[in-house]
């Protein structure tokens, strides 16, 4: 097999592993939600920790200084965590707007559709800023460093936000 064929097969294998990971994560999220547990930051924390374990070890092995100041990574990670926490995507926005299009007689009076729409839009804006920032960094700096620092600072931001947002889940009667 030539070098190009091996590279293509390697990329296909990595793509399949990523697809399997996304499907497994989605399944786990659905299972956890069906069990009545609402802890999205805890789920995010595990993803960020995995990135941290893998990529920070590579950065430490290289023994190089950071190419971008740490506070930019903190800002990028903060925006990333907010976007993921709000669970925004274009499909989510479309579904939220479609569900609000019901006639007022069919809507549940206990729900606040405008608040849901605002949260979805805020999450989408976070994703947009995050994607632009990551794209700039990936094109101009080291990709491994960016993923490592996003994982590290994403973990820190998730842990800091978990206490006030998930405190009610931890308190027992």
TrEMBL record:
Signal peptide: none annotated. Pfam families: SLC35F (PF06027). GO terms for molecular function: transmembrane transporter activity. InterPro entries: SLC35_F1/F2/F6 (IPR009262), SLC35F_Transporter (IPR052221). Its main location: membrane. GO terms for cellular component: membrane. The chain crosses the membrane at residues 44-60, 72-98, 110-132, 144-163. It is a multi-pass membrane protein. PANTHER family: DUF914-RELATED, OS05G0444300 PROTEIN. Belongs to the SLC35F solute transporter family. This is Solute carrier family 35 member F2-like. It comes from Panicum miliaceum (Proso millet). The lineage of its organism: Eukaryota, Viridiplantae, Streptophyta, Embryophyta, Tracheophyta.
């Amino acid at each position: 097999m030539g070098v190009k064929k091996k590279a293509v097969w390697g990329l296909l294998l990595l793509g399949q592993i990523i697809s399997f990971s996304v499907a497994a994560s989605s399944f786990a999220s659905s299972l956890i939600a069906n069990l009545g547990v609402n802890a999205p930051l805890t789920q995010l924390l595990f993803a960020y920790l995995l990135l941290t374990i893998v990529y920070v070890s590579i950065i430490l092995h290289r023994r190089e200084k950071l190419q971008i100041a740490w506070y930019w990574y903190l800002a990028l990670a903060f925006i990333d965590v907010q976007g993921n926490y709000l669970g925004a995507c274009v499909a989510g926005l479309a579904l939220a707007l479609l569900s609000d299009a019901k006639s007022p007689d069919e809507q549940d009076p206990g729900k606040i559709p405008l608040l849901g729409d605002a949260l979805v839009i805020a999450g989408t804006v976070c994703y947009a800023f995050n994607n632009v920032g990551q794209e700039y960094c990936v094109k101009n700096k080291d990709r491994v460093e960016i993923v490592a620092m996003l994982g590290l600072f994403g973990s820190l931001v998730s842990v800091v936000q978990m206490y006030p947002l998930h405190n009610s889940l931890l308190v027992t009667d």
